[in-house]
């Protein structure tokens, strides 16, 4: 028997600004971004922290967005998830623009109020060519029948807020330290206020920050993202600031955003023990806790566990919460107890290789999308959007099966488990710039030839299109 999705279900594909925009015109090439500097730095390339690929050889979505949105429509989707680049909108610091910074009893920044004078100062700082370009993009999406899901921060920061190479060389002496600085969250609040005033007309759903926990752990623990440090204290300092940054941005997006839903997105893997040793289960649970539950508790309840023992030490007042939880689900991580190991930063936990592998070495495990959604809903009782799900599969050998199997589990999560999942965005519409990995990892329903910029629809897109058009998954 087939699976029927709710009539108002949102079907979409997702991309992000930095991963897709550059590649065609000179105008699209924009160096004032931390990730741009990071991927061009000879020092960082020679340390093998990045692939050597550069974003300006990319998809060119900045120039080709109309044809790419047509591709999204051709897939039968009714929505698109994209992001705008903070640094393009404000190429220079907004630090001197006045705003009222509100703190809670503990001294944390919980609101950044921008009045009319502040807004007009922001309009003088903004790059209006970029703003108008983005407005054109959003308006076009709406005109072709795509609901707009807009993320205002998808990993990259303005260089004026984060100098990743200087931070990498010596965090103690660096002056622009990204999410480690409280100043970044204050400026983020101003940017969110501005974004909601200038883009609201065409936005249906807002996302403040994409995967704050990934930015923090990859940047300050696992060395996968800038500034590639290994320091637990800094990891949680960045996460903490991002939790408040969400809150501040939430309030400003709500204020001028005509009551549209506002949320954040996190990536939750399915950590699973491979044996019956109760210590393996414990390690898997703790890995899930550290990687996502810690930040969910902070974002939703303002509950901070400052010594990572799973108990709340501090309850911050003035946290906004969220209208929904955006969930990115990709894979399973198989683990077991192993004395002395420290996989994923978890003491005495070993991570085992994938069984059914993607080109990234990620373990395909469709049941995870159901169990993870169920867990998130049972614990936090908020509606869920699946904001990313997909795989690196250049040859397109596994994608059709992956999509079908994940959508089946998703359908079961909705109809059997009663999880209020409102939409599904496949990652990704196009092959794109996979951060430190560059162009080697191919996630697109459309393949991209980066030399000619030609897009070729992959066969597996047919499977996705069928479900999007009919709202049904047949066996
Ligand atoms: C990120 C994307 C990325 C994808 C695949 C997600 O964590 O939001 O930017 O391309 O995973 O790695």
Reconstruct the topology from this structure.
Layout: E1 3-4, E2 10-14, H1 17-20, H2 34-40, H3 42-46, H4 61-74, E3 79-83, H5 86-89, E4 100-103, E5 109-113, H6 116-125, H7 128-143, E6 147-151, H8 164-169, H9 182-199, E7 205-210, H10 212-220, H11 232-256, E8 262-267, E9 270-273, H12 278-301, E10 303-304, E11 314-315, E12 324-328, E13 332-337, E14 349-351, H13 367-380, E15 384-388, H14 399-415, E16 421-427, E17 446-449, E18 454-457, H15 461-470, E19 472-473
Parallel strand pairs: 2-3, 2-16, 3-6, 6-7, 7-8, 8-12, 9-13, 12-15, 15-16
Antiparallel strand pairs: 1-19, 4-5, 10-11, 13-14, 17-18
Helix pairs in contact: 4-7, 9-11, 10-11, 13-14
Bound molecules: beta-D-glucopyranose.
Residues 16, 19, 210-211, 214, 267, 328, 388, 427, 434 line the site of beta-D-glucopyranose.
């Amino acid at each position: 028997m087939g699976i029927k999705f709710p009539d108002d279900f949102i079907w979409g594909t997702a991309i992000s600004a930095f991963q897709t925009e550059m590649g065609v015109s000179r105008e699209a090439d924009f160096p004032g971004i931390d990730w741009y500097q990071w991927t061009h730095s000879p020092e960082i390339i020679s340390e093998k922290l990045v692939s050597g690929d550069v974003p300006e050889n990319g998809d060119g979505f900045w120039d080709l967005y109309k044809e790419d949105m047509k591709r999204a429509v051709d897939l039968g989707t009714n929505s698109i998830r994209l992001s705008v680049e903070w640094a393009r909108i404000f190429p220079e610091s907004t630090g001197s623009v006045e705003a009222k910074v509100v703190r809670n009893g503990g001294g944390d920044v919980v609101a950044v109020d921008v009045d009319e004078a502040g807004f007009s100062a922001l309009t003088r700082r903004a790059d209006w060519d970029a703003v108008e370009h983005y407005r054109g993009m959003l308006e076009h999406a709406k005109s072709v029948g795509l609901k707009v899901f807009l993320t205002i921060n998808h990993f990259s920061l303005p260089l004026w807020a984060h100098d990743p190479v200087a931070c990498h060389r010596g965090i103690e002496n660096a002056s622009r330290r990204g999410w480690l600085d409280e100043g970044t969250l204050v400026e983020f609040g101003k940017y969110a206020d501005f974004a909601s005033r200038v883009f609201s007309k065409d936005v249906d759903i807002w996302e403040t920050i994409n995967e704050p926990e990934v930015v923090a752990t990859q940047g300050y623990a696992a060395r996968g993202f800038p500034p590639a440090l290994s320091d637990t204290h800094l990891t949680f300092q960045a996460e903490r600031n991002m939790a408040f940054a969400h809150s501040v941005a939430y309030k400003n997006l709500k204020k001028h955003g005509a009551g549209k839903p506002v949320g954040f997105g996190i990536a939750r893997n399915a950590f699973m023990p491979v044996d019956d040793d109760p210590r393996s289960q414990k390690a898997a649970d703790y890995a899930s806790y550290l990687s996502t539950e810690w930040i969910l508790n902070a974002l939703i309840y303002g509950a901070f566990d400052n010594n990572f023992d799973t108990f709340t030490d501090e309850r911050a007042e003035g946290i906004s919460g969220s209208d929904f939880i955006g969930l990115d689900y990709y894979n399973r991580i198989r683990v077991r107890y192993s004395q002395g190991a420290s996989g994923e930063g978890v003491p005495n936990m070993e991570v085992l290789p994938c069984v059914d592998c993607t080109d990234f070495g990620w373990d395909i495990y469709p049941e995870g999308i159901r169990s993870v959604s169920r867990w998130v809903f049972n614990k936090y009782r908020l509606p869920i959007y699946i904001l990313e799900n997909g795989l690196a599969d250049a040859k397109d050998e596994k994608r059709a099966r992956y999509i079908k199997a994940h959508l089946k589990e998703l359908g079961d999560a909705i109809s059997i488990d009663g999880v209020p999942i409102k939409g599904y965005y496949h990652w990704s519409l196009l092959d794109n710039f996979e951060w430190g990995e560059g162009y080697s990892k191919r996630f697109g329903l459309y393949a991209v030839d980066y030399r000619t910029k030609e897009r070729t629809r992959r066969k597996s897109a047919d499977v996705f299109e069928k479900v999007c058009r009919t709202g049904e998954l047949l066996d």
